[in-house]
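re the bet — no i am not wrong, look at it urself. input seq straight from the record:
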Amino acid sequence: MELVRLPAQPRTAPWPTESWSRKDPNPQKPDDFQRIIDSLFNPTSQFGYTYALLIVKEGELVFEKYGYGSNSFYLQYSWSIAKSITHALVGALVADGKLDIYEPLSLSEWSEDSRSKITIDHLLKMSGGLQFNEDYVGQSSSDVISMLMFEGRHDTGAFAANQPLLNSPGKFWSYSSGSTNIICRVLKRIVGDGANGMIKYMNKRLFEPIGIRTATPKFDASGTFIGSSFLMAIPQDFARFGLLYLRGGVWENRQILSKDWIDYGRTPSFKDEKQCYGAHWWINPNDLTQFYASGFEGQTLLLDPNKDTIVLRLGRTPDLEAASLRSKLYDLVDSL
């Protein structure tokens, strides 16, 4: 499919490397805009608790509100927004000539079976074919709970890599946090020096150039970044990450990530009537121009190239209401 063009940073809007330029939102539908804001911060609503809501339009911060004791300096959980940050780290290594996402992975666990055909491309598109039960209700059959909290927590990538193959690589879509942590295990090996080397690379290659100062990734005991789930930052820094993608990987006069890499992430690789996925980025199935990073309990970093708009929502929403929350955020963009 032909992707909508990503907008350039307006000359009138300075890059927010040090601080965000601000202006009023001036929504086209002010009544709808206010009604949606009120519903997101209403403690009795179906959406639970919204800790932070930020809107960036045309490169400037036009709305910022916090709730339930949160503030602009309060570190927030990424949950699976971290998967999209992992996408950026892979893209940086690709650009540096250190990684080919289409080469089969040479993992010791896969040396003598069909898993040896799995590539980073398969894992980024959630089509690696490995067994992995992504269930957050805490049941004993939940692979993601076992990986993050119990027997797999010391080496999350190895735990996921040791899962059996259920489907041929590239033939079946199944969302898996294990896939991300296998990727992060590979990144650790390429970068070297364990967690210390990885955090230095993340800061030098991705975070520092775009003004992100508060990113706090979590590593397991083996030194692997738990890129499926665990990175904390202040909301304005998550918004900076979103702006990097909305600008096609450009920041100031530097190409941090290639435009082709950004497009790879937002190109549909799986779609059904309810959801659409690219490569470690989600896509609005009803408007394929919008793409977003999504995490447990309603964490959402929504990018709309047509309106040059970013909406960041962080909080706690019941899992059954996550789809309704996303619809409300789509409506919020529409009101602008």
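see?? The first helix runs from residue 30 to 40. told u. also The two ends are 27 Å apart (CA to CA). so pay up
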